[in-house]
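Ticket #4471: structure output looks truncated?

Reporter: J.K.
Steps to reproduce: submitted the chain below (413 residues) through the standard prediction queue, then opened the result file.
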Amino acid sequence: MTTHQEQLEKYAKLAIQTGVNLQEGQGLILNAPVESAEFARMVVKEAYHAGAENVHIEWGDDDVTYMKMKHAPMEVLENFPKWRAEGLEEMVKDGYALLTIYGTNPDLLKDIDGDRIAAVNKASGEALSEYRDYIMNDKVRWSIVGYPTLAWAEKVFPDLPTAEAQEKLWEEIFRISRVDKADPVQAWADHNETLRQAREYLNKKQYKQLVYKAEGTDLTIDLPERHIWHGGSAVSSDGAAFNPNMPTEEVFTMPHKYGVNGTVKSTKPLSYGGNLIENFTLTFKDGKVTDFSAEQGEDTLKHLLDTDEGSRRLGEVALVPHESPISKSGIIFFNTLFDENASCHLALGKAYPTNIENGPALSEDEMDQKGVNDSINHEDFMMGASDLDIDGITADGNAEPIFRNGSWAITFA
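Returned output as attached by the reporter:
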C-alpha cells in the first residue's frame, strides 16, 4: 500500500515532469502557500533533480494577505510594486517555467470592502500584464496543482474535524490528479490523448456558433474564423509539451467577443477575490454583459464586471462532460481549478491568443477585428450540469448535437 509520503513524492514528480516539464538548465518560479512548505520542498527537490538551474519561490500567506487587505492604506492597495513585476518579467523572459501550488481560503476576504479588493486586482492585473502575456501566449511552460490548506479543507468538508477534512481532501486531490495510479505520468499521457482526439474533432468541424440550452440558460456564442480548440497538454513556444492545469478535463476555445447573445446561469459557486459568488445570471447582447444578478456576492460580481471593458465580455468557452471524475465525486470544491473541471464553463475577460490561428503574432487592432477579447481579468465560471444541451452550428447553418444531457453526443474515433 502506498503511504501518504510516497503519494506526495509522486505528486511532486508529476508536477515537475508532466505539469511544467522542466528541462535541464531551466529556471523555475514556484508560487506556494507557506502552509505547503513541506510539499513545496519536495517540488524543489524534484526540480533540481530534473536539472533546474534555479528555483525562485514566491511564498504566500492567507493570514498576511488578510491583514494587508484589512489595514493597509488604499494608496498601497492601488499600487503594485514595480520591482516585483519587473523581476517576474525578467525571469520568464529568461525562460523560467512557472508552477503554482494553489489552495487559498475561498472565504478569505468575505468581510473586506469590495472597493479594496477591486483596487488590488486592478493594480496587479495592470502591472503584471506583460508577465501574463508570456503565460497566456504559452511563451513559457506553466502549471497549477492543488494543495489542501486547512481553511480550504474545512470549507469543502465542514462536518469533519479539521485533520480529517484535510486528509479527505488529499485523497480527492490524489484521485482526481491521477496520483493514485501506479504510473501517474503515463496515466496523464493516456488522458491527454483522449483530450487530443476531442479537440481535433472540433478543430476539423470549425463550427460557426455554439447554442446552449439548460435551465436558466439560453445562449448563442459565435466562434471566430480559424479558431483553435485546445485541451490537455499544450506546447510552449520552444516546442516542449506541458500541462497547464492539473487536473484538467476540458477542451476549450475562444468565443467572438462581439458575438455572444442570451442568458447564462451559473451552476457552481465562483471563488473570486477571496469571496464567493453564487447562483448568478448574466445576460449578453452583442458580446457584452448588459444585466446580471446573484443570490450571493452580487457586489463582488459587479466589481469583477466593472474592472475594465473586457471584463464584461467572454474570453473562453470550455466543454467538460458531466461524468468527469470531479463531477462524479459530487463535491463542490469552492476552487476554480477543480470545479471548472466538473462542468462546462465560460470565462469573463481575456482570451488566450493561442485559441486563434496566428494569434500570438496579431496586433491589438488585428485581435479586436477578429473578435479576440482583451482584459486584465480571466475568470472562469461554471454553467454546465446534467441538463445541458449544446449544438454546433455549421457554416451552412445546420445544427449538430455536441452535448446532450451534460455529456458528449459525439464520438472522436
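Triage note (M.O.): checked the attachment and the full C-alpha cell line is present. Residues 184-205 form the longest helix (22 residues).
Status: closed, working as intended.
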